[in-house]
Amino acid sequence: MAGKGPYKVKVTIGDAVVEVEGEEKGVVAIVQALSNVMRGDLRSQLPSPPTAKLEPVARLGQIDIRTFFDEKKPTSDVETAAVVAYYYKYLAPAEERRVAIDSSTLQEAFRLARRPLPSKTAYTLWNARGAGYLDSTGNTGFYELNPVGYNLVEHTLGKREPKAARRGAGRKKLASDKKKSQGRKK
Q1: Are strands 7-13 and 143-145 parallel, antiparallel or unpaired?
Q2: Residue 178 falls within a domain, yes or no?
Q3: 112-144 pLDDT, tens digit each
Q4: Is residue 174 in some structural domain?
Q5: 153 and 92 within one domain
Q6: Is residue 47 part of a domain?
Q7: Domain harbouring 130, CATH code
C-alpha cells in the first residue's frame, strides 16, 4: 500500500518551480502538459498572452500631431518625415496608426501640423531614407521608421538648440580667419 498516498512532483523550469500534488493520474497529466508546452506542441492551442501597449510615461494622454511637431521642432523636411513616421507608428489614435507612411500621409501630416508643404513629398521620403531615418518597406513608395530615425525623434529632437543658435558658437578662430578680419580693418 506504499503507492496509494498523494502523488507529489516538483518541476523546475529555469527560475520557476512548479509543485503538483494529488492523484497520480492528475499529476502525470499536468506534468505531460507542461512538457508539451516546453516543447512547443501546445503553443497554438494556448491563449496568447495579453499584449502590453508600451508608451513613454509622458505620452499616456492622447497627443495631436501639431503639438508633437511643436515639441520636437524638426528643422528640415527630412527630420519632419522621421517625426511623422514616429507619430503614426507610436502616438496616433489607434484607428490612424500605421507601420509605414507614404507621400500622401506625409503631405497630410505637413498640412495638419501647419508646416509649409515640400514641393515633392515623395522626394522628401526618399531623402529621409538616404539620411538613414527611414527604410523602404518593399511596397513602392512606403517607408518605415528605423532605429536611427527612432533615436533621432525620441532622444535628440526637441532637446537641442536650433541650428541658427548653434552656428559659430564655440567655434575656434583659425589663423586664416584672423588674417581675413585684419585685412578688412585696413
Answers
A1: unpaired
A2: no
A3: 999 999 999 999 999 999 999 999 998 889 999
A4: no
A5: yes
A6: no
A7: 1.10.10
Total domain count, the chain: 2
Please indicate, yes or no, whether residues 77 and 115 belong to a single structural domain of this protein.
yes
Task: Write a three-state SS string for the chain.
Answer: CCCCCCEEEEEEECCEEEEEEECHHHHHHHHHHHHHHHHCCCCCCCCCCCCCCCCCHHHCCCCCHHHHHHHHCCCCHHHHHHHHHHHHHHHCCHHHCCCEECHHHHHHHHHHCCCCCCCCHHHHHHHHHHCCCEEECCCCCCEEECHHHHHHHHHHCCCCCCHHHHCCCCCCCCHHHHHHHHHHHC
- Structural domain that includes position 35: 7-39
Between 79 and 37, residue with greater pLDDT: 79
Quote the pLDDT of residue 24: 77
Q: Which residues pair with 101 in a beta bridge?
A: 143
pTM passes above 0.70 = no
Alpha-carbon span 55 to 70, nearest angstrom: 19
